[in-house]
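Q: Could you write out the predicted structure for this multi-component system? I'm mainly interested in how the pieces pack against one another.
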Amino acid sequence: AQKITQTQPGMFVQEKEAVTLDCTYDTSDQSYGLFWYKQPSSGEMIFLIYQGSYDEQNATEGRYSLNFQKARKSANLVISASQLGDSAMYFCAMREENTGGFKTIFGAGTRLFVKA
Amino acid sequence: DAGVIQSPRHEVTEMGQEVTLRCKPISGHDYLFWYRQTMMRGLELLIYFNNNVPIDDSGMPEDRFSAKMPNASFSTLKIQPSEPRDSAVYFCASSRGQSSNSPLHFGNGTRLTVT
């Protein structure tokens, strides 16, 4: 069963604008973690941000923030002030800490294009 | 600090040949993961280890695939015999398990092409 859903295969954003990448998840665990990774065209996987299921505040890391809506099971990534270097694939991932151990599964990804 | 090191970066082989992919995790990380990435199936978890012990190999596609971790600093993923459908990028990742917010640290991947 698909547990991580990223419904936007591709997104365009103008340089310096903000963009939201959607992620919804499905779990019956009470304890889980949500991650976002960036994969530039060069292929490496870069960790961006983490949100724990018990965290009451939305996570932020520089220009990245995670809009966590637990009741809706969504964990959207917000990138503020987009830069050309933000053009990449973005993956949402989940770790179910009770039933899944340390297993981390990924969504299908969203390709972001930043226009000059 | 050195990151996760994978070798080779690229591998081209003929159908039926044995392929061995190698990974050196970050020192001190007690979890090691093997993922496969394809356009059709995305990032699939194949297997992961904790303290060199395989914990979950439910993602290993079939008996042609095997993975070992003989010590804390080395792991291999072997495909024997290889098939064209095995063509993909194979990533190794490691993580420190002491806290739930530990992210995965990925290697640069091995691009496997089976002709």
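A: Regarding packing and overall arrangement: Chain B has a mean pLDDT of 94.
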